[in-house]
Write a structure and sequence with these properties.
The protein has 9 helices and 15 strands. The protein has about 300 residues and is of the alpha/beta class. The strands form 3 sheets. A 7-stranded mixed beta sheet has the order 6-7-8-3-9-10-15, covered by helices on one side. Strands 2-1-4-5 form a 4-stranded antiparallel beta sheet, covered by helices on one side.
Length: about 300
């Protein structure tokens, strides 16, 4: 649905996007990942036609991105943009009209979505009276009122408690099932694990890793052991038959040496600390994210479906 080819964008001497190429398919959730300053926001602003690339091409269903195409996009930015003194109903009506709906249709759709998102009765309340999480719901509804075919969500779970985060996840999955293509930009790797079909990791303006989520995790499966534990970290400082790859408080990543088996490592560690999780399969996306960024991968790893 969305094809990004060799995009470059420079601000003065800073190259924010350096030859980025991505393909987002219809009816799938695409995780756009990367550390702060990686170039994600710049790329999103070019997709939404807020700024123009210096080089490269962005196509939506084979057509160049233009102002007319913007009505097909819903964009929830990380920096929220609600009018605090307007009521929720006025807010939703206004944003719906900006996207081509008449006032009656916008209000009708907005009211239906408020009911769906456990927010019935908020219509007459001013935005300034709402909590951060409640405002987040309103802005999300404003983003999807016009039923966009491409939905871009930048940190959509910010300010939401676990119950409302689960509610939002169910709505995102429902939109996907309807055929909406969704770009999800977030630092919450657990949500990426739950939602995304495909991911791309951007670092220093380049795509350093991309592909189907299960393929990405399989790519990193090796002779590595992941241990989560409670206890004194110094007790696991030197586990026989292993080499330490990465260690944080309560989490340890190891590689097996020679003929060492996972069972031997588990038995050794279990005698010293309380094991919370012992994983010999795929690393988490959090682990892959940290490792890839730390390694500062010079080339793109592409994993085809």
């Amino acid at each position: 649905m969305l094809t990004i080819t060799d995009i470059r964008k420079r601000f003065g001497t800073h190259l924010a996007n350096d030859g980025i190429s991505l393909s987002i398919e219809s009816g799938r959730i695409f995780g756009l990942l990367g550390p702060n300053g990686a170039g994600k926001t710049t790329l999103i602003r070019m997709i939404t036609n807020i700024i123009m690339p210096d080089e490269g091409q962005i196509l939506l269903d084979g057509q160049p991105m233009a102002s007319l195409q913007q009505h097909r996009i819903g964009y929830l930015p990380e920096e929220r943009g609600l009018y605090k003194k307007l009521t929720v109903a006025e807010q939703l009506t206004y944003f719906g009209q900006l996207k081509g709906l008449d006032a009656r249709e916008a209000l009708m759709r907005g009211t239906a979505w408020l009911h769906k998102m456990d927010a019935a009765g908020w219509e007459s309340r001013k935005v300034q009276e709402l909590s951060k999480g409640m405002q987040q719901k309103v802005q999300f509804i404003a983003t999807i009122l016009h039923e966009p075919s491409l939905l871009i969500l930048d940190e959509p779970f910010s300010g939401l408690d676990p119950v409302n985060a689960d509610l939002l996840i169910s709505v995102i999955k429902e939109l996907k099932d309807r055929g909406t293509s969704i770009i999800l930009s977030t630092h919450q790797m657990d949500q990426v694990e739950r939602l995304c079909d495909d991911i791309a990791l951007i670092h220093k303006g380049k795509v350093v890793l991309q592909g189907n989520v299960s393929d990405v995790r399989s790519r990193y499966r090796s002779n590595r052991i992941y241990i989560e534990y409670t206890g004194d970290p110094s007790l696991l400082a030197d586990i026989p038959g292993t080499s330490r790859v990465h260690a944080t408080n309560g989490r340890l990543e190891l590689t097996l040496d020679g003929d060492t088996t996972p069972r031997q490592v588990l038995t050794y560690a279990h005698n010293l600390v309380d094991i919370v999780k012992f994983d010999v399969s795929s690393p988490t996306l959090h682990d892959i994210f940290v490792r890839t960024v730390k390694d500062d991968a010079p080339t793109t790893t592409t994993l085809m479906q």
